[in-house]
Amino acid sequence: MQQCVADFKELRSYFYEDYYPLTGLDDLTGDNIWLAYQLNKPSDNSGVVVAFRRTDTHSNTVSVKLKGLNPDTTYIVYNDNDKSETHKTGKELVEGITLIVDSAPGSLLLKYYSK
Asked: Could you tell me the pTM of the whole model?
């Protein structure tokens, strides 16, 4: 429970700035879809991407295009699931990234911030 509270405290400030749905606004309740959204904080040039792979989703990947990023800025993208880190430009993230979740159901949390 303490870890859940710590996770919430770390992420709660993102809910007060920009929200972008990344997988559309159609039926969000189906068991055969991906659901992904972005919480972007222009105030400090950071954000998170939250993705859910539902039970009956056959593909373990989905491509999404992030919003509200500076194309000339380099971002550090941290995968909270596997603890990996990559460096991408805002231009690359806006053009599209592939999210991977191997288990269904499953989820993914990416955190990004500028260098």
From this structure: 0.92
